[in-house]
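User: Assemble these into one structure.

Assistant: Restating your components, then the assembled model:
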Amino acid sequence: MGEFKVHRVRFFEYMPTAIRAMSFNAHTERLALARVDGSVEVFNFADRYFQEKVIPGKDAHSIEALCWVGGRLFSAGLHGEITEYDLENLRPKYSLEAYGGPIWTIISNPQGTHVAIGCEDGTVKLFEVLAEGVQFERNLDRQKGRIISLSWHPSGTRIAAGMMDMIRVFDVLTGDVGGCKSRETVVWTVVFLSDHTIFSSDSAGKVQVWDGHTGTLVKTHQLTKWDVLALSVSKDESSVVAGTSEGTVVQFQFIAPNLQQQEKEWVRTRTFKNHTHDVRALVEIGTAIVSGGMDTQLVVRPLLEKFEEKCFASGLRRIHFPHRNLVSCAQKARLLLLQFPGQLELWRLGESDGHGKPGDILPLKTKPEKLLYLKRKGKDHICCSALSSCGGWLAYSTVSSVRLYRLQTDNNISITKVLQSPGCLGMWSLPVRTMTTELGLALHLPVTLKETQSKLCITLAIPFSHNHVSLFQLHCMVPMYSSCPSAMGIHPTTNNLTMVHADQQIFEFSIAEKQYTVWSRKLQMQGLHNLWLNRDTPVTHVTFNPKNPDQILLHDMYMFCIIDQSLPLPDQKTQFYNQMTLRSLSEQERPSHLHAFKVCKSFQDLMCMRLLDDQSLVVVERPLMAINSQLPAPVRQKKFAT
Amino acid sequence: MVEHTGIRVVHRGGSKINFREPVITSDSRFLLCGSGESVKVYSTSTEECVHDLQGHTDLVTGVVLNPSNHLQAYSCSADGTVRLWDFTDGILIKTFIIRYHIFSIHVSEKHVGVLFVVVPMANEKELFQLVAVHLPRSGDPEVEVGELSAVLCDVSPNPGAVSFGTGGEYIAAAKGLQLEVFFFKKQKSYRFSLKSGMNKGINNSFTCISCHPKEDCIATGHADGKIRLWRNFNQKKEYTYSTLHWHHNAVNTLRFTPEGSTNLLSGGIESVLVQWRYTQENQKDFLPRLGAAITHIAVSPDGSLFCTSHADNKITIILSSVKVSAIIQGLVKDDCVRTDLMIDPRSKALVLNGKPGHLQFYSLHRDKQLYNLDIVQQEYIHEQGVDQFQVVKAAFDTHGDWLATVEERRQKSSELEINLKLWSYDEQTQSFVLNTTVTAPHEDQITAMCFSPSPETTLLVTTSLDGHFKAWLCQLAKKIESASWSCDFVGGYHLLKPGCCCFSADGSLLAFGFQEVVTVWSPTSWELLTTLSQPPGAVRDLCFGRLSCSKYLLGTSTKNQLCCWNLLTCSLEWNTPMDVSLLQADPFSENMAAFCSQSGSTDLFVFKPSEPRPLFSKKALCTGKVERAIFAPRDQMLESSEEYSQWLNRSQLYFLTQHMDLMTFSTKTEEDRLLASSKQLMVDDSVAITPFYLLLGRHKQQQQEKQELLTNPLAERTPLPQGSIAIKELLDTPAHVLPSASFLCSMFVRSLLVSSSSAR
């Protein structure tokens, strides 16, 4: 069809970092995930595993463990501090030095009154959780060697601690010690069950079952030659999962060996292999096993026997890319701004004057060129960035400051700092899809979204002049919807706000009339096609075609879609992915088969898709193969016939 | 033509012993396995066949021990009966007539008086069901079973895919991608299905199943080599399984060892027996190099013995310490027999190619492989796609002194490699020894080879597609080892390709089939005597008549002609239009057997060349073409008076069907004789040693010994040292009166020495 000239960009060397720790809050169905670079992500499992919040990391501030206390999120790391996060403003609320050397683990008791940390110096420290923070209560008996892992008995009276070569059980009230001994190993994780059974996983590749009363070994399961790094127990304590360095997740189930009898025992059952590298973090959430590790992807493996019928949650999910934009594009100036945690890169797109058949690769006249490498200032990582469409302005933000730069790219490249504002973080940071709009001004800036109690409030921040930022509050409330918006955009000519939610619903809201548009109502009446609703990655960007006001362009990780509002909507019976069929039809037959959703899947692993002013598309791909090839080598495994 | 009912086509000798799973008796002394139409009882220690339980009239499809009497066994057959045997004495106790083709049989201790058999569904032949058979209590030896109740529908006919669970509480059956477990108490079944992995190129369908003897755990084997252990299967949803993976190809069979040290045994095409420790599945033991793909595994009830059936018709008996203790080898049948079927004139054994590169000698009477002769003498590489030397032709001379073999290898790019080997019989080693190797005897494939039957010369004739026939003559020396072979004559006829050759019974004439032309030569002077031709169609087979009919030459052609020429008049005596695929002459009579393929099945005609009227005919003998057949001599002549069965009096006709089943003909008199011999109460001479035996048995033994001494004076042997007076003295004298040990020692040693006079 050859409608667009496509710039296929593969020079964005985005590299996600390994997953280090996870914690699941069953009450709110939020999964907190910590990466090795110190960033924390919060996924909403009730809302199609949508990445709701991202708190960027900080240099020299790695996280070893995460824990939820009620709705509050705590982390601890080898820097020796306990940090609580402000989940409203997406930044650390405070950090508290624990004075025990590096902290290996943090865990809260089931009652939510205390957290315990395991320190390098061999102490287990108890902190009381207060409304405004945590307060040190006392130390349990100090041991030789570091405390690697902790697990609280469900009653809250005992703690099992995994150490070098040793598991110890502490009585929380008295601080007494009982122990089980293993040999020459690091006990990576312990799990304390309510019947005083202790599961331990260690560096010798074993998962061992201990009797917590007597400290005797009940059973040893040799899982691997390498380490078993993670353990997690289901809420009803009928299943324990263990993650190994080989990338496998092994399930143990509490099963009666004889069906008629009540006596049960722990039996090794299923093995899942969804990772190529170490599984460092693992959570069993009842209906699924969530695992993450060195290969940077988050895998949600559903337990199929828990589902009555096929639904969204019963499919395997792999989350590779963040659910937000890391690339911004100057449509007029043909520039791309690539965001990394530590720096920004500005590229000029290549040009080609060739003409060819649809599907041809055109020769380049000028190659893409890296114009600028901008290192961030300070320790905090960059959380969002933007580029104006004329290419004259550049802005980025960390959790502590916003910076705005004037950019000249015509002949000699120059950059001058215009503004540094430490103040307006609260505005900036929230869940933030950076949204761009054009109100006759040269500069667009991210728009923050605040989820208020009943309505979505849109605040636009538009700097008018070089050193003055004005805030506009558009007092127009969009009716609230249960699912979080994953992308939104304001139409340049009609001023309609198009929103795509995590559950794949699309709304169009007229800002002028303060109500949903006719097209949006029609779409809701008729309902979206099932194939559209069952896609497994959220739409991360919405943009419009300036030449054709009817066209809305969206993309997610696996496809991009052009919605043509002038065409009829597809109903459930129409063929949704119809591009191939259309191609085979003659010119006369085509119009009768057209529908509003035109989906293109020829580009995979999409990070960004933009329409330039000259009607050419920019597609930024980051192939997963390229990410995998940059990962460190996995542990050596014997492969058959090698 | 008349159909004769008195002659049946039966499996006898050389039948598969690996068709179904063997059974080890509870005392581990015997092994029962179905073999053709009989059940064989082998001794697990000596590998000898102790009894041959005859009675079924069709293929035996399963053998199980009677759970309520460990000295009895049930067998089921495709003839629709279940028979109860006393296998220690070899007696048929009872016959239950079910009147359905039975595919497998299963029993459980909990269900006394009930057998579970797999039969086809009433209206659909392709579907099978598992039914419970309630055995009627009646004293009659033949009982009709009326009551069948279906337990499971749509099961696999493979007996390995059905298994009883702990104490017979439930039965598990697998078919395709589905596992079904039926609980008898609840009368409820649960079905679990696997997702098809076909689109990913994985075939994860079930192949076999085994239930843990104590715990509720079902092990299933899959076509992709995985083993799954299912637990918690008494509910629809919360069932669970773990996966074990070692086999790289389909798991053929699985078996749990009995309680105690429960292990799981598995086997497949890798021909490695894998022993998995239950609950510690990453520990496993291997027994590699078992020779051929494992098809079944059986375990004795006490767990002391395992046995594995193999694809090359072999049963290996393995001790529980994973050591091979005995091997029972049946007739090796590959997917095709390249050499003809032959009879070794010395041992009267059937000879054909067995293991790759070997000839096997198989005794049909004893139904046992005698030995293998390595022809190729090269290491066989177990890998697909490797082109290796194969034995394609073999021939014996009349006395069995010489064996000629042809091996060939055709590689894709290079030329055909042929070796002709001549083997002489060595009296001392009782085996054939390689005498001469002729590399590249012909330029193309050898089509036929035969020895001259004349007693004066040892002459071998080979014909080849290169258009020549060669005569190889043996220069006899004093010792057979120093005999040498050389090419005596190379002949041809108008550059036509010879397809077959045949010597007359006295060796004075030699006939070649050169496509449409039959040429008759004199092997002494090598002159062409006459040519006979009866176009159209190339000559396929040639055969001289014997004894009184030696003036006739018979030939078959590809264009459906059977011709008989009179050699005295050199004219056609008679011909009939029939598509003869194989013509075989009986070496002991004038009779000829012609196998005709007609519309997918084979008919047999037995006739004398003197008259074009069949002595015996059998329509639709079997499906498919019969390519190989042989008349084997009987060890005992039959005195059959009926005209139609007289041709079977001196020899027995064996033939191989398309499915590589060795079949033969059995007459009524023969069956009567066999039945009579099996009815004789055979007393096993190796009865277990019990106190009762010690009282009575020893007495009997002494009597026997006395008798033997009387009848057989040669049996007198030098008395063992236990009997010597010195020892008796030493042992009988009370210890306190004995002299010192140093004194006794020299006396004792002296008593053991054999004096030179008594040795002579």
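Residues 18-155 of chain B form a domain with the Methylamine Dehydrogenase; Chain H fold (CATH 2.130.10.10).
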